[in-house]
Amino acid sequence: IMSKNKSSESVKVVVRCRPLNRKEESSGPVGGIVQMDLRLGQVILRNPRASPSEPQKTFTFDAVYDANSKQRDLYDESVRPLIDSVLAGFNGTIFAYGQTGTGKTYTMQGAWLDPEKRGVIPNAFDHIFTHISRSQSDKQYLVRASYLEIYREEIRDLLDPNHSTAKGLDLRENPETGVYVPDLTSCVCKSIKEIEEVMNVGNQARAVGATDMNEHSSRSHALFLITVECSQPGPDGRKHIRVGRLNLVDLAGSERQAKTGVHGERLKEAAKINLSLSALGNVISALADGRSGHVPYRDSKLTRLLQDSLGGNAKTVMVATLGPAPAHYDETLTTLRYANRAKNIQNQPKVNEDPKDALLREFQKEIARLKAQLNHRRWRSKQKKEQVDGEDWGRDSDEEMEDEEEVVETETEEYLKLEEQRLEREEEAITEDQFLLAEEKQKLLGDLRKEQEAAEQLTAKYKAMESKLLVGGKNIIDHTNEQQKMLEVKRQEIAEQTRKEREIQQQMLVQDEETLELRETFTSLQQEVEAKTKKLKKLYSKLQCIKAEIKDMNDEHVGSRQELEQTQNELTRELKFKYLIIENFIPPEEKNKIMNRLTFDPEEDQWNFQPLVPAQSKFSQMKKRPASAVGYKRPISQFARVAIAMGAHSRYRAENIMFLELDMCPPNPSPLDCSVEADPNQTPSLENSPTRNRDIHKSSSCPPRGDRTSFRSVSILPRVCRTGFTSVELRLHERGEDLLGAKRRGFRSAD
Ligand code: ADP
Ligand code: MG
Known about the structure:
751 residues, alpha+beta, ten-stranded mixed beta sheet, 24 helices, binds adenosine-5'-diphosphate, binds magnesium ion
């Protein structure tokens, strides 16, 4: 595809296939279904269910990496140029896309401890810091790293120590710098070790937050962000800052989540898990298509964060990962189609020159300010010294205010030393001065000390700020020797060569097909027939391929449409259910009130309630809290307060307990058999009044009234109740009833 814009370039897409794992090897003799032509950058996919005559599917990419590929090869060939661009001030993105278990994390991170198996991210760390250490000393660098994760459409800051409890982070858009996450933790890193530590902390946070790490990582997107700011004096003598931002993205597994029997809340959740991924697919389709004006970046958090990387001003590399197992043919084909589409996306990379929000600029300003302060102090103390005793400070006198950093650095130390000496001398002078009062002496000494402390603090701050800046060719010790450096350069050259060769091969292939006819001249009719037959065959097979492709596409469309319809049906059913509840159980005027308060927030894709009280008149409308409410949740009358303090009236309490006991007791058909129970006392009364007998049975079979009242007194004021029982006992005793029985009842109901 020809680029529309001169400065535009397409997204680089490379494909990597992992080796068969042990389980797949043992499960059958079929072998892999993925073949690769490394020279041409082609993937040939065999359908294990199709007849051998059916043409195989071929896809061409910028590069392909088979099961034997080394991490290093992928890095040197496909990633190194991108990181170089980032160091030059471009935005860059690498994302790994593919089914779970196909090697996304292996490619991005790899095995950290084995130098052969280190993935893109550790290699990029090496690359960045080695580059800084080898660059010229007039360059200053500031490297920052952030680590975040998108899980169920929530952005979590993995470097925030209490991220697990914190609310998900928001996204904001700035016309100058694009979409960003406010309040995201970012750590200034001065060395490979430090940035690796940052990565470690984030990885641990990811693992700790998840109950099942495997499931979690296959459903969440991890984004590691590195910002490299570089300042360098330009031809105009002023320092210019370039900012490169690198996104290293390990996406969620691309396989379709089965959503059988899911509805309601669970459906929503299932839709959210892969919302970002399907939105990414839609964005890629819209961009690759080129015709549709609307690109749905806003549909998900991931696509908004990657807005610059897809169709924006970044340089982007996509690594699509495949598994070779026949069982995953469908997923593999989907991944390849996806990757094939992404090839057509055009970006317009541009260097970020002197952005307003460069942190490096702020650092430089702050350092300059501190330096000026130090200089000023030094100058002032010199003045004072000269005034006081006219002593000559030797080196100080011919020094001038210089702006050169290194000079200042040594000067600062010197100044500190001198200052210390001066203070010591002054201190001695003060202690020796017989004429000063002890009090005054003390005060002067205190002043001196304070001054010294201030100077020290200032210097410490200055040093801390400056230590964060990396100066080219200085801060990091480069351990590699010349020979090794040469080796690296050679390796890069080779990688570059391979890449170019492949490009030429691919171009030749395309040209071959187009110009074959033009070059051919036929000496005889027979030859012409042969040649044309050959060509016809070739074209015919191509036609078959395309027909198959169309059929596949159709099938896919039908499939996804059915899926959508099913989802729609489920949602409609859900909606009907909600409507039913609203129509039947919520009064229309209440419904209207609620509806009038609702507003839609397109940013959050959510309905929100407007506040009941308009924000500006909040204070004028809010009534003062009544004095009677101090310490209570709501105003309460004097009478009620006294009642609470007193507890419930004991008279009724006693009755409540009696009720409870009678009510709670299960109907007992043969009370006479049980001599230990309180029944013997009740029997006579039962005999006397048969009506009461009926009452008891009735109330025990339908306990609501008595039960409720007694329950309240027992559950709210259990302690008061127990004291209440004693009074019950007493009174029962007075009445001559059985004490034992009542007692037992009382305790049982207090349980
Ligand atoms: P994903 O992140 O896509 O779910 P992983 O990166 O976790 O997949 O890889 C799954 C397994 O396959 C891991 O055990 C990993 O070591 C192995 N693996 C993946 N790619 C390769 C490769 N290119 N070479 C060797 N092993 C690989
Ligand atoms: Mg993974």
